[in-house]
# Entry
Amino acid sequence: MTRTGTRTLNITNGSSGVIDEINAPNTTITVRNDGTIGLLRGYFPSEDKDPFRENMVTLQRGAGVYNKIHSVAPWTGDDGYTPKTADFSKLLSAGDYFYLPGMETPWQRGTTIDDDDIIGAIMLQNAYFTGLPFSSIEVTGTAGNSAPVKLKPDENGRLTMTVAAGQDVTLTGDVLLPDQGLKSDKAKLAYSWTCNAPGGSGSGNVFTFEDILYGEYDLTLTVTDNQYHHLKKK
# Structure
């Protein structure tokens, strides 16, 4: 699609949708993409603080891929476009990421030296605008006669529990999936438990203490999504 003049355009591309090109000079665009967009060309936040260039693109979280996102300078009315470096990180709100599969750091917010591929760029390729594929890890537990175990966060945010010695304790891990954007396939997640307690063992998303001994122990659950190259620890 092509638009000229100053106007506003809201675009929603469904999961089965394919848009070859969004090419909208002098247009304020809001895009949510759950399908495939071949090329999105527009005016993005200036990387060099150009006072004459205003960002005119808003991206919303979606599960779709942008084959190319191209930053250009304001259109002057001729047949061509002048490439212009952009700071794409300025498009990100809290919890938003660019997912760039194949890059050394695929999840990028532009906040560290390791995820600067979205700063000072003219073009992003094979890019997703999304949140993380799972946002948090949840752990529930039972002890003894299957009574629920209360897990409470300490001052550092780590979950703690107190149980009587000699009981069997079972902990189960799960993840919280986002409402929009890329989502992990729970059936394909890898769970890994590390613990310094004797008699404890983990299998999949379940960890069991058999006849737990008196003492204080540390337990860490790591959940890995190999499809989207994301891991988180609890």
